[in-house]
Each structure stands twice: as structure tokens, then as C-alpha cells.
Design goal:
single chain, about 300 residues, alpha/beta, 7-stranded mixed sheet, 6-stranded mixed sheet, 10 helices, about 30% helix, globular
């Protein structure tokens, strides 16, 4: 294994800023976050917008407050990494106002998934990696989330290096095809990823491995989004596809099978990431070798 760090280990007592760039927590959740982080060896710095007041019924706080929290978290020298509280919707409303120079000056790790796909896309354009991973008010506070929490916080304590292997136990999947392919891993939630098309934050798919997951979207909606990705050239540009969980709706596998295998590119499906359990942390914005036969990812 190479000792070159892709992101450095965080020591016991490291500080995680908790921000809410999208939706608000449920009543009682926010008060549990410091204890959750402390149980795994971290200090929590909860930014003000996490406590509201909520706006429009679906935003944790005003755009101005959520943006200020985002900037403050990355600029704060006490903060070692930034953990999003939950998804929902709202991150895209911040993109045009984010200080990208501040992001570059403070290349801390951003952790989150679902709606946070929009922030990962912006940061990918800046060459900054992130972790697609569970969040406190989305699933880490659930009674059965102990293994997912250990996987995330354990990875933060270990760090990630060139040569590290991600190889969860995966069953065979009918979508799997091809062998090994290398590329930058991009993507996240299908709906959020697709909504970025036509904007300056749409991820560069050329030569990339595109990861996709979704929740609560019926097959015809998945079809519509994949059709848009195809017509925008994203599917043709990609080097391969990593497919996570498509949950809480009728199975979309037939739709995925209609769009992806005909491209004759490597596909590895059934990866445990998304709105599912287990949900293992997945590095975005970094080069990987996806080995379909071994059902693994190796960091390059």
C-alpha cells in the first residue's frame, strides 16, 4: 500500500463542524448530534442554521444563514472536517453564492449524501474530494445505524490512502458486466445529479466512473432522468457505472438494464451506498480502479 494520503486521518478529539445546507432535522434530533460524535471520538461544532428557524417548510434556515454556516465551517481553523446534518432539498440554492476561493484555501473534507450531491459536484469542479456517506439526521441517529456509523467514523480516523481497497461483500448482480476500469468517481443522487445538467456545476463525466443512487422514484421517473443523462451525453462520456441503492419505490432494475448495458461499459451494481442499510462511505472526486469481477474499488 502506498503511504500517499488522499485525505489524512483525523485524531481522537478532532472537530467536525455540523451544517444544514438543505433540510431541517426532526424535533429532538439536533440535541443528539454532539453525543453521537463524541461516542466515536469527535467534537461537534454545530453551526447556528442547524437550529433554524426553518423556511418554506423544507429549508433548515434562510439561504443567507445556511451559506454563512457553510463558509464559517470551512474557514474555522478549529474545524477538521465538515459533516452535513441531513439532505432533503436546498443545497442547489447556495451554489451560485459559494466562495470557491475559500473552498480552495481550506480543502477540508465534506461529508454527506442525497441533496449534498450538489455540493460534491461544485467541489469536484474545484478538484476537492468528498465523502458520500450517512448523515446524523438522515440515518446515523437511527437505532440500527451502529455499523454505518462505525464505518464512517472509522474511515475518518484511519484516513484514505492510494492503494486502499473498498471491497464490501457483494452478491452477483444481473447488471454487472465488463472487467476493470479506472476513472474519477463522481455522482450521487440521480435526481440531484440530473438537475445540475445545463449549469456550470454539472460534473465533468468524460472518462469518469458515475455513481448513481436514488430513493422514492418510480421507474418512469428513473427512465426520464436516465434519458436526460443520455441525451446530454453523460452516459456516452462515462468510463463506467457504479450503481448503489434504488429504494422505497418499485424496482428500477429493468430501466437501468434498458439504458446501461447497451453502452458496453463496465457496470458494478448493488454497491451498499444510498438511502439503504448498510450505507458505507464512498469517496467522490478521486480516481479509483473499479474491478467488476472482484466487486471492488481500489484508490489510485
Amino acid at each position: 500500500m502506498n503511504d500517499l494520503p488522499l485525505f489524512s486521518p483525523l485524531p481522537q478529539g478532532a472537530c467536525l463542524a455540523v451544517i444544514a445546507p438543505a433540510g431541517p432535522p426532526k424535533p429532538g434530533q439536533l440535541a443528539q448530534v454532539p453525543d453521537l460524535l463524541a461516542a466515536h471520538g469527535f467534537r461537534a461544532k454545530v453551526l447556528p442554521g442547524c437550529a433554524g428557524p426553518a423556511l418554506l417548510g423544507h429549508l433548515a434556515a434562510s439561504d443567507e444563514q445556511r451559506l454563512a454556516d457553510l463558509h464559517a465551517a470551512f474557514a474555522d481553523p478549529e474545524v477538521d472536517a465538515v459533516l452535513c446534518l441531513r439532505g432533503g432539498y436546498g443545497s442547489a440554492r447556495l451554489l451560485a453564492a459559494i466562495d470557491t476561493q475559500l473552498m480552495r484555501r481550506h480543502p477540508k473534507l465534506l461529508i454527506g449524501f442525497s441533496d449534498i450531491t450538489a455540493l460534491h459536484a461544485l467541489r469536484d469542479g474545484l478538484g476537492l474530494p468528498g465523502l458520500h456517506a450517512p448523515m446524523p439526521a438522515s440515518n446515523l441517529l437511527d437505532d440500527d445505524a451502529g455499523d454505518d456509523a462505525q464505518a464512517l467514523f472509522g474511515l475518518l480516523h484511519r484516513g484514505l490512502r492510494v492503494g486502499d481497497l473498498l471491497a464490501p461483500a457483494l452478491p452477483a448482480h444481473e447488471l454487472n458486466q465488463g472487467e476493470a476500469v479506472a476513472g474519477r468517481l463522481i455522482g450521487g443522487n440521480l435526481a440531484v445529479f440530473t438537475a445540475l445538467l445545463g449549469t456550470r456545476w454539472a460534473p465533468r463525466a468524460e472518462g469518469a466512473i458515475v455513481f448513481l443512487e436514488e430513493v422514492g422514484e418510480e421507474p418512469y421517473r428513473v427512465d426520464r432522468m436516465l434519458c436526460q443523462l443520455r441525451q446530454a451525453g453523460v452516459l456516452d462520456a462515462a468510463a463506467g457505472f457504479l450503481i448503489g441503492s434504488f429504494s422505497e419505490a418499485e424496482s428500477a432494475e429493468a430501466v437501468l438494464a434498458d439504458y446501461l448495458p447497451v453502452l458496453n461499459k463496465p457496470i458494478l451494481a448493488g454497491w451498499p451506498a444510498g438511502h439503504c442499510r448498510p450505507h458505507l462511505p464512498l469517496p467522490l472526486g478521486l480516481p479509483v480502479m473499479m474491478d467488476v469481477r472482484a466487486r471492488s474499488l481500489r484508490m489510485l
